[in-house]
Amino acid sequence: MSVNNDVDESLKEKKNSISSEERSVKTASVFGGDDAVDIDANVQYAGMLKKPPFGTKSYGMLTRWTERFCVVKESFLLYYDKSEKKHYENKKMFNIHPKGVIPLANCSIEKWDDTGKPGFKITHASFKTGNLVMAARNADERDNWIKILQECSKITWNNAQLGAAQIKQLEENTARINKERTEYIEKLQAEAEARKNETGKKEELERISKKLEEEKAAMQNIANQFKEEKEMTAQELLDAMEAMKKLDEERTNLDSASKELEQNLKKVAEEKAKQEEVLKKQQEEKEKLAATSNQLKSHLESVEEAAKRLAAEKHLTEQQLQEKEKKAQVYEEEKKKLMRSATEAKINLEEICAKRRETELELDRTSSVLELETKERKRLEKRLRLAEDSLKRLDVALR
User: Fold this and answer.
1) Strand 45-51 to 66-73 pairing
2) Which distant-in-sequence residues (6+ apart) come within 8 Å of 24 by Cβ?
3) DSSP conformational letter for 119
4) At what angle do helices 202-344 and 2-19 cross, to 10 degrees?
5) CA–CA separation, 41 vs 254, rounded Å?
6) What is the pLDDT of residue 18?
7) How far apart are CA 243 and CA 247, in angstroms?
8) What is the maximum alpha-carbon separation in the chain?
9) Any residues with CB less than 8 A from the CB of 388 and at least 6 apart, and which?
10) Burial class (CB in 10 A: 0-12, 13-18, 19+), 71
11) Local structure of residue 37 (DSSP, 8 states)
C-alpha cells in the first residue's frame, strides 16, 4: 500500500504541475498584413526585460542593452519590440510573429548578476552561440521571472512519457492487489468453512464471517478507489497529451512565422543593398556634376577674362579710331589748304603742276592710309560683335 500511495502522490504532483500551466487557446483573429496575426490566449507571464545581443561574452559600460516586451506561453519565451506592450495591454492579445522564440524545455534558469543588473541566465546544451542573458528592472521582478520560467521548463515530452509509465505501473499494482485480495478472501472462506464444520465454534464462525464481509467491503472500496484514481490519471494523461499536441502545433506555427520573418528580413536586406547602390550612383553623378560645375566655373572665369581683354581692346581700338578720325580731319583740312594753294598757284603753271603732282601723290598716300584704317576699323568692329555675341551666349548658358 505504501508503494501505491507514493505513486498516487507522484501522479497528483504531476497533475498539479500540468494544471498550473494555462493551456487553453480561446480564439484567433487575423487583422491583415504579414505581421498582424494575434492570438487571444492565456499566458503565464508578460513584461519588459532588457536583452544584450545573443552570444555576448562580456558585459560592461559599452554593452548595448535593448528593451524588449517578453511573453511566457507554455514552454516558450517570446520577445518583441517594446512597442508591442501597448498593443498587448489594449487588446489582451499577443502577436505570433515575435522577434525571437526561446524554447524553455529542459533549460536551466538561474540568477546572473555579473552584468551589474538584476539579471538571469538561460542555458541549454543546444544553444550553440552562447547563453541567453536578460535583466529585469529590479530584483523582485527578476525573481518572479525566474520562478515562472523554471516552472515552464518542466513541461516536456519526457515528463508526459513518465506519467504514462507511472499509470502503467499503477495498473500492474492494482491487478496484483486484486489478486492478493482474492487469495486472501479464498483463504478466509476456507478457514470459515473449516470452522463451520466444528460444532463448538459457531459464534467464532459468525464473527469470522462478519469480519470477512467487512474485509470484503473494505477491499471493494479500495478497488473502487484504485479504479477512480486510474480513470482520473488516464484523463490527466490525455489532457497532458492534448496539451503537448497544442504545444507542437504552436511550435510549428512559431517556426513557420520565424521562417517568414527571416524571408522578410532577407528581402529588406536586398532592398537596402539596392537603395545603397542607387545612392552610390547618385553620389557619383553628384561628383560628376560638381566636376562639370567646376569646369564651367573655370570656363566662365576664362570667358570673363577674355571679355575683359576684348573690352580693353575695344576701348583701345576706339581710342585709335578717334585718333585716326582726328588725323583724317587734319588731312582733310590740309587737302582744302592745298586746293586753295592750287587755286592761288595758277599764276605759275609749273609750280602749280609740280605742286599738283605732289598733292596728288600725297592724296594717294592719304587715301591708302584711310582705306587701311577703314579696313582695320571694320575688322575691329567685327571682333567686337563676335565678343558681344559670345558674352550673350555665355549669359544664356549661365541662366
Assistant:
1) antiparallel
2) 41, 42
3) E
4) 30
5) 15
6) 39
7) 6
8) 216
9) none
10) buried
11) E
CA distance 117 to 49: 11
Residues 6+ apart with CB under 8 A from 51: 65, 66, 68, 79, 132, 133, 134, 135
Q: What is the pTM of this model?
A: 0.36
* DSSP designation for 15: H
Angstrom distance (rounded) from CA 7 to CA 154: 19
pLDDT at 81: 92
d(CA 150, CA 137): 19
pLDDT tens over the chain, length 399 residues: 443 444 345 444 544 443 443 333 232 222 233 444 555 557 888 999 998 887 777 777 777 889 999 999 888 899 999 888 888 888 877 777 888 888 888 888 999 887 788 999 888 888 777 788 899 999 999 999 999 998 888 766 666 566 566 667 767 777 888 888 888 888 888 877 777 666 666 777 778 878 888 888 888 888 787 778 778 777 777 777 777 778 778 777 777 777 887 788 888 888 888 888 888 888 888 888 888 878 878 877 887 887 788 888 888 888 888 888 888 787 778 777 767 765 676 676 777 777 778 877 888 788 788 888 888 888 888 888 888 888 888 878 776
Q: What amino acid occupies position 91?
A: K
CA-wise closest residue to 72 among 35, 33, 117, 120: 120
> Where do we find the cell 492494482?
174
Q: Which three cell numbers stand for residue 309?
A: 581683354
CA 167 to chain CA centroid, Å, is 49
In 3D space, the residue among 257, 245, 237 whose CA is nearest the CA of residue 24 turns out to be: 245
Residue listed under C-alpha cell 538561460: 122
**Shortest CA distance to 110 belongs to which of 163, 146, 74?**
146
The CA distance from 230 to 20, in Å, is: 21
Query: How many residues are there in the chain?
Result: 399
The three-state (H, E, C) secondary structure of 39-55, written as one string: EEECCCEEEEEEECCCC
Strands 25-30 and 108-112: unpaired
Q: How far is residue 275's CA from residue 285's CA, in Å, rounded to a whole number?
A: 15
Could you tell me the three cell numbers for 60? 560592461
Cell of 53: 545581443
